[in-house]
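Blackboard transcription, Thursday session:
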Amino acid sequence: MAKPSIKSVAVVGTGVIGRSWIQVFARAGCAVRVFDADPIQVAGAMSWVEADLKALRKEGGIKKKEARARRDRVRVAASLAEAVDGAGYIQESGPESLEIKRSLYREIDSAAGPEAIVASSTSAMDMTDIASELKGAHRCIVAHPINPPHVVPAVEILGGAATQAQVVHRTVEFMRELGQTPVLMRRFVPGFVVNRLQAALIREAVDLVSSGVCDVRAVDDSIRDGLGLRWALMGPYGVANTNADGGVQEYFTRFRQAYHDIWAALNTDVRLDDELVARLGVETDAMLPAPLPVQRAWRDRLVGAIRRLKADDPLRGSKKKAKRRAR
Amino acid sequence: MAKPSIKSVAVVGTGVIGRSWIQVFARAGCAVRVFDADPIQVAGAMSWVEADLKALRKEGGIKKKEARARRDRVRVAASLAEAVDGAGYIQESGPESLEIKRSLYREIDSAAGPEAIVASSTSAMDMTDIASELKGAHRCIVAHPINPPHVVPAVEILGGAATQAQVVHRTVEFMRELGQTPVLMRRFVPGFVVNRLQAALIREAVDLVSSGVCDVRAVDDSIRDGLGLRWALMGPYGVANTNADGGVQEYFTRFRQAYHDIWAALNTDVRLDDELVARLGVETDAMLPAPLPVQRAWRDRLVGAIRRLKADDPLRGSKKKAKRRAR
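(Written on the board underneath:)
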């Protein structure tokens, strides 16, 4: 991985998302200054960073020297102003409250250098609402990761009304340089892209169980030993493409009526009432008896392994074609 | 893998699904008799079986001896009666026409032994509609795979009104013995479980593009470098479980309102008109320039690799707990 074009970044807010961002930036070689108004939170985040690096070393993912280098790139700042001073990119992962974010962005905007990009990890807010009254609204943007970003690379990128096209472009490029996968949105919708796709699937997952078609285990088995195996490699369009000899166009033409029929049959009036939620909890606990930290460590380890599989054996085609043409 | 409890099976219908089933049964050690009313189709399926075994040998997946043993387990039958004679399990993968299936099931039912299970690969039909008038309706069942079943293990299992509980149970067990993952359904719904979950996600995937929120690439990136990485390991309930310290119950309680809000915002009036389908085709082709056979071979190779990752490093917990208790 080449060194990223932005060398110095600030991480503001050090909850589960913020601390994971620290690893993303330090891994890529950036100098990271970290700030959180809560000193207990920031101490916890730094302990987690060290423990995570130690675990990575133990699993053989990185050498001692590399772990130390990453650790040495991270410094806790005593104030927000100190954290953002000289930073080319600021990743904010504060509480999901519009009032708090507005106040925080006023502070960041007045302390940060004029060229710095200010990005929010918000999963729900529109940057127009957060930053519209700021002098630096043009350099504010949403960069919403999937939890945890140091494991799962997709990051949703969305500017507000005032965000400059150049800032969007540079954020997309920076994410690529970090090894993340930018998912560029053109306009705000509730839930963005990722949580809408997830919510659409979960609505049906919940309805299948609540209406008695099958149990929690059947739903999860059908994904992890079925659809999910393909979706780890190709999105829904890629999968559709491989399911008809004429590709996506033939697929959606041939199965148009089948999709319209299933769509008409899906229940859209699904409610997560207390009784249902309790039942889903009981069935899931029975399916997954391992303690949660074991489940999470396993998930992260295997997500990493799947990413390496894909990196080592990428889907080629365009390059080969180009080579053939060049001969 | 222990030898399956049913030693002799028949594959009736040898299209893309039927030929893949041949590999599932032969791999598990079953004697497989194959029939298709169309001799060109059956010849094509047998050529594909040999080519697939050759590719598997070349990739180092199996030794020459094993490839030959699998090939030797498969025999083409001259008639339907010959194919099902002595078979303990019959997998039917004929055309998706109720009229054709009814006629085929009359023939199978009168030729097959009284103990044989007759399973259909149908993705849409209710076994009650196919088999209700048969003497052997009690042994007829749906076993719908995800394409291709020799690569992707999930198989939806659903009896008709007359299907015996014992037949459902034995089919579920047999699928496990074959190395497949049975997804047990309790009642018929259009699209079953897998295609409903897929259709729910695809409806949103199509709406995001058609409404201009993002392009095809952004949707696919958000799945294959995001949600899909987790879904290859855990279904939606498992993922929800790991996303809150209190598990699924806390997760759906905490995010209940967020889900209800996103669900209310999802467009359910999505139509795959010609113009949209053409556009999705163009964007997908631009995203995936590799030829379709290359895409499919890559997908199948990497799905296999992900399955091996999971088999080599399974999520433990219950066993460890049991061991600790035993000490």
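Lecturer's comment: Confidence is low (pLDDT under 50) at residues 321-327 of chain A.
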